[in-house]
Amino acid sequence: MISPPQRHSHLDALAMTLMVGLCALWGLNQVAAKLANAGISPVLQAGLRSGGSTLLLMIWCRFRGVRLFDADRSLKAGLAAGAMFSAEFALIYWGLEYTPASRAVVFLYTAPFVVALGVHWLVPSERLSRVQSLGLACAFGGILLAFGDNLSLPDHRQMIGDAMLLAAAGLWGGTTVLVRSSRLAAIRPAKTLFYQLGVSAVALPVASLLLGEQGIIGQPSALVWASLAGQIVIVAFASYLTWFWLISRYPATRLSAFSFLTPLFGMMFGAVLLGERITWGLSGAMALVAAGIWLVNRK
C-alpha cells in the first residue's frame, strides 16, 4: 500500500524555486517549439514529444520500481486527464491558425482562474481569500500589460481562435483541478504523467492528420531534431514529472499563480535567441506578476 504524499498548506522555498525554474523551462520551450516548427508540424510535434517522453517515463519507472499498470481505481480519471491534455494542445495549435500568438497568450492564461474556481468548489481546504484572488487578478494584469497592445476588437476569424484558446485554458485548468481532486491525487506522480503522455502520444498524431497538417516538412535540420529532443527529455519528461510531484504536495492554486511567469520568460528568451521584439511593458508586467504571486502565496 502506497502512503499518501505529505500535504503542505503553503509553498516553501523548495516549491517556489522549482516553480520559477519550471516556468523558465516552459518559456524556453516556446522558443524550442518555434525552432522545431520549421521541420515538424505543431500538433504532430506535440504528439512525437509525448511519445518519446512516454518511453523515457516507462524506462525510468522500471528502474525506480514504480508500477504503472496496477489496479488502483485511477483509470477513469487518468484517461480523462489524458484526453483533456490532448484536446488542450490540439486547440492551442489549431487556434493559432486563427489568431496571433501574442493575442492567444492573454486568453490561454485565464487557466489559473479555472483552477481557483475548481478547487474552491472541490477542494475546500485550498480556497483562496479575497486578497489572494486579488493577487491572481494582479498577475493576470501583468499579462495584459505585456501583451495587451495586441488586443483589439476581433474579426470573425480571430473570434474563432480566441474561443479555441479560451477552451484550451479551460481544459488546462480543468486538468489541474481533476488531478488535485480525484484519485490521481493519491497515486504516484509518475503514473499521473503516464496517463497524460500515453493518451496524447496516440491522440495528437491522429489530430494532426484530421487537421490536415503537413507532418514532417522536407528534411528537418539537426537543430529541429535537437529542439524536439530537448522538449522530450527536459520538458515533457523531467519538468512535467516535477510539476505533478508539486501538485501532489502543495496547493494547486498557489502553484498555478506562478504560471503567469511562463509567457514573460518566453518573451525574454524569444528576444535573446530569436531576435523577437519585446514590448515596452515587460518590466511593469514582471512587477505585477511578482506582486500577484506574493499576494496569492503570503501567509
Question: What does this 3D model show about the protein?
Answer:
- The chain has twelve helices and no strands.
- The protein has helices at residues 13-36, 42-64, 75-95, 101-108, 111-122, 130-147, 156-181, 189-210, 222-247, 252-257, 261-274, 282-297.
- The longest helix has 26 residues, at 156-181.
- Helices cover 72% and strands 0% of the residues.
- It has one domain (13-297).
- The protein is globular and about 50 Å long.
- It has 299 residues and is mainly α.
How many helices? The count is 12
SS content category: mainly alpha
Low-confidence stretches: none
- Evaluate the radius of gyration: 19 Å
Features:
membrane; 12 helices; globular; 299 residues; mainly alpha
Outline:
This protein is 72% helix and 0% strand. With 299 residues, the chain is mostly helical. It has one domain.
Helix/strand layout:
Blueprint: H1 13-36, H2 42-64, H3 75-95, H4 101-108, H5 111-122, H6 130-147, H7 156-181, H8 189-210, H9 222-247, H10 252-257, H11 261-274, H12 282-297
Helix pairs in contact: 1-9, 1-11, 2-8, 2-9, 3-7, 3-8, 4-6, 4-7, 5-7, 6-12, 8-9
